[in-house]
Amino acid sequence: MFTDYCGTPLPTPAPYGSGTIADLFESAGTLVKQRTITPDPHPLWGEGAHDAIGLAQRLEQAGINPDKFRSVCVVMVDGLGEDLLQKYASYAPFLKNSISLGTLHSAIPSTTAASLTSFGTALPPGIHGVAGYEVRNPENDAVVNHLSGWDSSIDPHRWQPYPTVFERYENYCNVATVSLSRYQKSGLSQFGLRGGEFFHAQAPTGRITLGTSLLSSRKPSLVYMYWGEIDQAGHRFGTGSTQWIYQLEELNLSLRKLSERVPAQTLLLLSADHGMLNIDREHRYDYSADEHLIENVRLTAGEPRMVQLYLKDNSKEAKEKTLNDWAKRWGEQAWIIDTEEACEQGLFGIEVRDQARARIGDILIACREPIALYDKRRAKPQAFDMVGQHGSLTETETTIPLRVLPTT
Predict the structure, then answer these.
(1) With bands split at pLDDT 50, 70 and 90, how would you rate the model's confidence at 149?
(2) Which helix (H) or strand (E) holds 257?
(3) What are the beta bridge partners of residue 142?
(4) Is 38 a member of any domain?
(5) Range of the domain at 159
(6) Does an H or E element contain 310, and which?
(7) How many CB atoms lie under 10 A from the CB of residue 55?
(8) CB atoms within 10 A of CB 255
(9) Model confidence, pTM
(10) Residue 27 near residue 39, CB atoms below 8 Å
């Protein structure tokens, strides 16, 4: 059993290669064109079609023939973890009555940048290197924001050099992304989700129309549809809020329409990149106010529920002191983790390559209780207004659904 610095057991590492978001799109692709496509080789597993999550077997166990699908669409609902889907299912009767194929595990950290890059590349963060909302750029020792502050001077093909699932399938079937226009040229789209064609629509109705058209094509299609409104409502107002429930109801109605319009030989899958939990304002803390904690910290990155600390002095004695200081202050509410041990235990995958390791902090502070930890020296004031949060190792944040939406 893997424990943190305080001796507190950590959750079992994500089962990369068999049951995570990193394996979902790869497995979905194997069912396109009645399971006859052999894509370009996977960067780790080589040639062949790799159904890493056993999607065909899961379908068979649910009474669905996996050989009948011409096209496959994965609807990725940002922030809709399995716990939330179960808790608020009464507001989404169509989704409630969809067929569950079990659950999957998010990437670690349980945040959009890491999970969607894993989804798009079929690789764990220890390989692709997008190990958090923010990480250190070892080339200039600056903090890179993968979502809201992407440095356009960074070559996305160097930052994430491995071929994506989109690129590996695009010569064998229609491969498409359906999302918002502002994401078309984003850093994440360029380094983690590149390949195929990008179709944008701002409103849910537009996305459903585009999805219907793509999946009704005579040519087999592999489609990724991104749905971000629930995550946005959760961050701003909290899960279970009136605004959040409204977005869940909108999702439910929209996906029912999509399922009614696409051909019967279409497999519609629903999943998420992570879950979310609410953090009360009084439990959003500024750790930078404690000079003792940041005495040996050169840079901070990550997210408020998975802080990454980059040390000035990374010697054994200095790191031990920093670990001990954080353990005394936050050890009862967070896992205090030596990153070297985390890498050895497979937190970021069975292998952590040099490029990825150079970006990850020396110490990880993963919140166990409903708290969030900020570096006020760097965080924007509005960041403290965020209600719904994620990024850590709890089941609420890491367990994501895998469901089949019935087509008529």
Answers:
(1) confident
(2) helix 242-261
(3) 137
(4) yes
(5) 21-278+394-405
(6) strand 306-311
(7) 24
(8) 25
(9) 0.97
(10) no
